[in-house]
Amino acid sequence: MQKNDSILPLRISVVAIIVLLLLVFTSAQQPLGFLPQQEEEVLAQQQQSAQETGQKIPLGTASDSIFTNYLNPQYGFSLLYPTEWINEEINPGANLTFLMSFGPTAGEFGEFVFVYMAVKNLTSNNTSLEQFADQEINLLKLPPAVTSPTEDTSARTILESGPTTIEGNTPAYKVVYTEKVSGTLSKIMEIYAVQGNKGYILSYLAYTEIYDKYLSIAQKMVDSFYVTAPSLEALVHL
Fold first, then answer.
1. How confident is the model at residue 217 (pLDDT cuts 50, 70, 90)?
2. Can you say whether the dihedral through the CA atoms of 10, 193, 205, 77 is positive or negative?
3. SS3 (DSSP) at 68
4. Residue 196 pLDDT more than 50?
5. Order of strands across the sheet with 226-227?
6. Are 234 and 178 in contact (CB under 8 A)?
7. pLDDT at 221
8. What percent of the chain lies above the pLDDT cut of 90?
9. What average pLDDT does the structure give for the chain?
10. Conformation bin of residue 33: beta by default, left when phi > 0, alpha when psi is -120 to 50
11. pLDDT value at position 1?
């Protein structure tokens, strides 16, 4: 287990990866399979059920849209995401143990908007939600990061910060802030949750001019976000 991860490279690496996703999504892709075959079959059945019962409406509003359930028992979380969107597992690097992105195809929508799910190893099972949230918020308040060519933290402004809940009435913490990514002002909503020795960061990132357009979809994903005990494999992950 990673006991002494630096928090600063964690956020820098995640933001840099999200910027690069615009290039990744310019070509057609299939979701990466990483679940055992039996779990993949269960997920496929859930996807089929969602497609049969949902009602498609224009993307940009969440009400009655078709949503698919994404289930990850290894890392102990699930959430709903629009069926039209692509999910992509990304190499998490040294400071995260898991990173998954969700977003519309760039070729179809041509807009910078992503929801990503990050899982981080915590130092112990006793790390509280308050401690984890304080870690992340203190990071947001740090001076500009000269090590990141894509991130201008001098333009970062925290707009909202406070407790919230996610699916199952589970306590969580919400932060909304703005910063420049690749020279363009972006708006980001992050939801923090803790389960055992895992810290969860669910983030919605979009350029400010289209943030409200996809907010209802992002909020539905947040509202459906559910954490459980990770599997033994994830608990012993190094």
1. very high
2. positive
3. strand
4. yes
5. 67-72, 77-82, 226-227
6. no
7. 95
8. 44
9. 74
10. beta
11. 34
Helix, coil or strand: residue 113: strand
Can you name the residues that pair with 198 across neighbouring β-strands?
Answer: 121, 195
Q: Can you list the pairs that 40-44 forms with residues at least 24 positions away whose Cβ atoms lie under 8 Å? A: 42/71, 43/69, 43/70, 43/71
Taking the complete model, does pTM exceed 0.85, yes or no?
no
Listed by start position, the domains of the chain span 7-235
**Partners of 199 in the β-ladder:** 120, 194
Q: Which two tokens stand for residue 125?
A: 């099972």
Comparing 15 with 229, the larger pLDDT belongs to: 229
Structure tokens at 216: 């209802």
> In terms of DSSP H, where are the helices of 103-179?
106-109, 129-140
Q: Return d(Cα 173, Cα 183) in angstroms, integer.
A: 28
H helix or E strand, kind and range, residue 83: none
What is residue 37's three-state secondary structure? Answer: helix
Q: pLDDT at position 43, please? A: 38
Question: Which residues does 67 contact at the CB level (< 8 Å), separation at least 6?
Answer: 50, 54, 80, 81, 82, 83, 220, 224
CATH number given to 7-235: 3.40.1000.10
Quote the CA–CA distance of 29 and 32 in Å, as a whole number: 9
pLDDT of amino acid 84: 86
Q: For 131-148, what is each residue's pLDDT tens digit?
A: 999 999 998 887 655 545
Contact criterion met (CB below 8 Å) for 77 and 196: no
Question: Do residues 46 and 52 lie in contact, with contact meaning Cβ atoms separated by under 8 Å?
Answer: no
